[in-house]
Amino acid sequence: MARSCQDAHLLRRVAEQVWLPAPSRPRHGAAADARGAVQGHRGHAAVRRPGGHWRPGSVLRVQWEMDKATLALMRTPRCSLPDLPAAAPARRRRQAPAPTKWRKRNLSWRVRTFPRDSPLGRDTVRALMHYALKVWSDLTPLNFHEVAGSAADIQIDFSTADHNDRYPFDGPGGAVAHAFFPGDHHTAGDTHFDDDEAWTFRSSDAHGMDLFAVAVHEFGHAIGLSHVAATRSIMQPYYQGPVGDPLRYGLPYEDRVRVWQLYGVRESVSPTAQPDTPEPEEPPLLPEPPDDRSSTPPRKDVPHRCSGHFDAVAQIRGEAFFFKGKYFWRLTRDRHLVSLQPAQVHRFWRGLPLHLDSVDAVYERTSDHKIVFLKGDRYWVFKDNNVEEGYPRPISDFGLPPGGVDAAFSWAHNDKTYFFKDQLYWRYDEHTQRMDPGHPAQSPPWRGIPSTLDDAMRWSDGAAYFFRGKEYWKVLDGELEVAPGYPQSTARDWLVCRDPPADPEGADGEAGAHARPGQRDRSRSEDAYEVCSCTSIAAAAPRAAGPLLAALLSLLWTAARALAL
């Protein structure tokens, strides 16, 4: 028994960092987070030989090597659905958990609150919800009926921030949606979308989240389905971008099988029983596609994270931001990439000019934790996502000459802000708001960094990171020399890319990572149920991770199910 429990613990640690369905079902009424369309959320795992590596002993007798692609993939966040209930008594753990599904077949729904500032009208939103639910009812005995009254089995809301369900949203580019599993809880089946996201329909996936794709995924949770590892599944953890015409979309085979296992196959004649609540006379209609699509920028305008250098890199609120052109990528405190595709800078930080095509440097001030953006001869100061009154102002406020800077960061060792331009650097005291005497100067104090920089950043480990081209250098906290083994690849270590980076138009630059929308990969455990946030912006289609991943996932899943029984 002790060995079995130990194996379960090891498998749980692996499962938390792999694309692996949870061996046990979530508790009734729990929220499923979708990081993006799909949203939910982590990489594939491999088991190594002894010496600080996983070895599930008696459960898995085959040992595997962990390669670089595996490690990179494990840095990509996913939604952590429940694992083996660690706190449950051993006897109860050995019993198969009860399935989570609706006990009735006629379910009512309504959109309780609509998006506020959205190009999608109310009728369009209702139509997309109707057809997203129809995707599931076409295959199962379930019947969904829109109602006008306040009572509905599935309440749909567009909300922001803390909306009184213990799972707050966090603004653009963050958690985009979540749904509650069926059960006796009063929120069972309810589905919430972040109203701060840019919801789109029949639009480029680079400019927002496709509402239909996200809704299909979320309603899968609302009827009891959790995430799966299958790359073609709408229920896989990562956002896959738009899925096509709602009038013609059909579920992938993997999803059909799972929903049939839960509810059975729909008969050719639908049930005659009708709900007690009224329904609209006609289903809502989808608007016709606009004739003029010239306003949609081409995809080539969206940069690729695996190619070239970055305009700026910054740590903000403990997270890393990589800026390129009008876009940025965001990494969590654990260096998990929030989304494979970038978000638009001006949509996240309100107050930057819409025509701003790039930034020179970004950093968080140590004195008051406000965020400073520099571009050319001007700079802006932000509190959270909003620009302060009176900005932009000239960079001469810092004592900097005209012409802009190449990089800026605050060093943890002395809380001073360093500005870099060509082969010169300046040291600025944020507390006294004065440049230190003797600056500008040549030869920065850190030996081994490039003479000119693209970016610099202080990270949560206390180290300073310097970026040039496709490489970066690390200087440990308090040290004045680059750590051994550097430079290393920025794309590989930070942006989930293969080494060397691939052509931006190809798929090889991605380390087998699946696409997905969303944001902050913060897990939060409540009542033995772990909830993860999600991210936004459409991501590239998932890529197969190879025979090793397929074999390993099969073994891990079989073993986890054996332990759950």
TrEMBL record:
<dbReference type="InterPro" id="IPR033739">
    <property type="entry name" value="M10A_MMP"/>
</dbReference>
<dbReference type="InterPro" id="IPR000585">
    <property type="entry name" value="Hemopexin-like_dom"/>
</dbReference>
<keyword id="KW-0645">Protease</keyword>
<feature type="region of interest" description="Disordered">
    <location>
        <begin position="269"/>
        <end position="304"/>
    </location>
</feature>
<dbReference type="GO" id="GO:0030574">
    <property type="term" value="P:collagen catabolic process"/>
</dbReference>
<feature type="binding site">
    <location>
        <position position="195"/>
    </location>
    <ligand>
        <name>Ca(2+) 1</name>
    </ligand>
</feature>
<feature type="binding site">
    <location>
        <position position="311"/>
    </location>
    <ligand>
        <name>Ca(2+) 4</name>
    </ligand>
</feature>
<feature type="binding site">
    <location>
        <position position="197"/>
    </location>
    <ligand>
        <name>Ca(2+) 1</name>
    </ligand>
</feature>
<feature type="compositionally biased region" description="Basic and acidic residues">
    <location>
        <begin position="290"/>
        <end position="304"/>
    </location>
</feature>
<keyword id="KW-0479">Metal-binding</keyword>
<dbReference type="GO" id="GO:0005615">
    <property type="term" value="C:extracellular space"/>
</dbReference>
<feature type="binding site">
    <location>
        <position position="117"/>
    </location>
    <ligand>
        <name>Ca(2+) 1</name>
    </ligand>
</feature>
<feature type="active site">
    <location>
        <position position="218"/>
    </location>
</feature>
<feature type="binding site">
    <location>
        <position position="227"/>
    </location>
    <ligand>
        <name>Zn(2+) 2</name>
    </ligand>
</feature>
<feature type="binding site">
    <location>
        <position position="454"/>
    </location>
    <ligand>
        <name>Ca(2+) 4</name>
    </ligand>
</feature>
<feature type="repeat" description="Hemopexin">
    <location>
        <begin position="356"/>
        <end position="401"/>
    </location>
</feature>
<keyword id="KW-0862">Zinc</keyword>
<feature type="repeat" description="Hemopexin">
    <location>
        <begin position="307"/>
        <end position="352"/>
    </location>
</feature>
<dbReference type="GO" id="GO:0004222">
    <property type="term" value="F:metalloendopeptidase activity"/>
</dbReference>
<feature type="binding site">
    <location>
        <position position="171"/>
    </location>
    <ligand>
        <name>Ca(2+) 3</name>
    </ligand>
</feature>
<feature type="binding site">
    <location>
        <position position="197"/>
    </location>
    <ligand>
        <name>Ca(2+) 3</name>
    </ligand>
</feature>
<feature type="modified residue" description="Phosphotyrosine; by PKDCC">
    <location>
        <position position="391"/>
    </location>
</feature>
<feature type="repeat" description="Hemopexin">
    <location>
        <begin position="451"/>
        <end position="497"/>
    </location>
</feature>
<dbReference type="InterPro" id="IPR036375">
    <property type="entry name" value="Hemopexin-like_dom_sf"/>
</dbReference>
<feature type="binding site" description="in inhibited form">
    <location>
        <position position="79"/>
    </location>
    <ligand>
        <name>Zn(2+) 2</name>
    </ligand>
</feature>
<feature type="domain" description="Peptidase metallopeptidase">
    <location>
        <begin position="98"/>
        <end position="265"/>
    </location>
</feature>
<feature type="binding site">
    <location>
        <position position="408"/>
    </location>
    <ligand>
        <name>Ca(2+) 5</name>
    </ligand>
</feature>
<dbReference type="GO" id="GO:0008270">
    <property type="term" value="F:zinc ion binding"/>
</dbReference>
<keyword id="KW-0378">Hydrolase</keyword>
<feature type="binding site">
    <location>
        <position position="235"/>
    </location>
    <ligand>
        <name>Zn(2+) 2</name>
    </ligand>
</feature>
<dbReference type="Pfam" id="PF00413">
    <property type="entry name" value="Peptidase_M10"/>
</dbReference>
<feature type="repeat" description="Hemopexin">
    <location>
        <begin position="402"/>
        <end position="450"/>
    </location>
</feature>
<feature type="binding site">
    <location>
        <position position="194"/>
    </location>
    <ligand>
        <name>Ca(2+) 3</name>
    </ligand>
</feature>
<feature type="binding site">
    <location>
        <position position="178"/>
    </location>
    <ligand>
        <name>Zn(2+) 1</name>
    </ligand>
</feature>
<dbReference type="Pfam" id="PF00045">
    <property type="entry name" value="Hemopexin"/>
</dbReference>
<feature type="binding site">
    <location>
        <position position="153"/>
    </location>
    <ligand>
        <name>Ca(2+) 2</name>
    </ligand>
</feature>
<keyword id="KW-0677">Repeat</keyword>
<dbReference type="InterPro" id="IPR024079">
    <property type="entry name" value="MetalloPept_cat_dom_sf"/>
</dbReference>
<protein>
    <submittedName>
        <fullName>Matrix metalloproteinase-17 isoform X2</fullName>
    </submittedName>
</protein>
<feature type="region of interest" description="Disordered">
    <location>
        <begin position="499"/>
        <end position="525"/>
    </location>
</feature>
<keyword id="KW-0106">Calcium</keyword>
<feature type="binding site">
    <location>
        <position position="360"/>
    </location>
    <ligand>
        <name>Ca(2+) 4</name>
    </ligand>
</feature>
